[in-house]
Amino acid sequence: MKSIGVIPARIESSRLPRKVLLDICGKPMIQHVWEKAISSDLDDVIIASDSQEVIETAKNFGANVYLTSQDHQSGTSRLVELSENIKSDLYINIQGDEPLISPYIINELIQARKSCDSRKVFTAANQNCTDEDYLSPYVVKVVTDNIMDALYFSRAPIPYFRNRTGSIRPLKHIGIYGYTYEGLQCYKSSGPSLLEEAESLEQLRFLENGEKIRVILTQYESIGVDTKEDLTRVRQILGSIGGNL
């Protein structure tokens, strides 16, 4: 089974402009992401961007690149374009602003696809959902059925504990996805859905159109860089260990 990691990278960001090119321990952020990804079991890793500056930077540190259209509103949309020109059994969407991404979670998604050929979309969650996470609209939660297919994703606290009994633990969604080609075509053909627009969560497009999303439980903890404070934290973490995990 061939698997390709795709790192969608746009240069514009409202909260932290040009963040994928910002320096972390002597390397642009996107290079840290790429170095973690290529140490996984992926057959190839491609940086996909509509920015010529990002493309040239990526080429300079040895990455494979793909110049996309400028019309995309999401990373998944960039994957759709790439998948129509580069064939694979699995495309893993790796966020370009997660320089601490673990190769192990990438491998977990690859294994999930090998173990389940009846699903077209895969993602991850962990049980490290604190009370603060549970209440925060910036942390996405997910609830699943008994076989770990997603029932719903939300920025709201789900499930709602009317009676806090039993052993249910809230699951914190981790924003990494694995798609088959058919899964990406489903995303393309469906168009934005009402729930997707209401919650600003593109994965709801699949659920609203009846497509299953398999969720894997992982120990991995995500640290995305969205603010200057996030950037400082990541710089401190990588700086304390010589710039590499």
Short description:
This protein has helices spanning 29-38, 52-60, 75-83, 103-115, 131-135, 181-190, 194-199, 204-208, 228-240, and strands at residues 3-8, 23-24, 27-28, 44-49, 64-67, 90-93, 121-126, 141-144, 150-154, 171-179, 214-217. The protein is of the alpha/beta class.
Give an overview of the whole structure.
There is one protein chain. The strands form two sheets. Strands 1, 4, 5, 6, 7, 8, 9, 10 and 11 form a nine-stranded mixed beta sheet that branches. Helices cover 33% and strands 21% of the residues. The mean pLDDT is 93. The longest helix is centred in the middle third of the chain and has 13 residues, at 103-115. With 245 residues, it is an alpha/beta fold. Helix 3 (75-83) crosses helix 6.
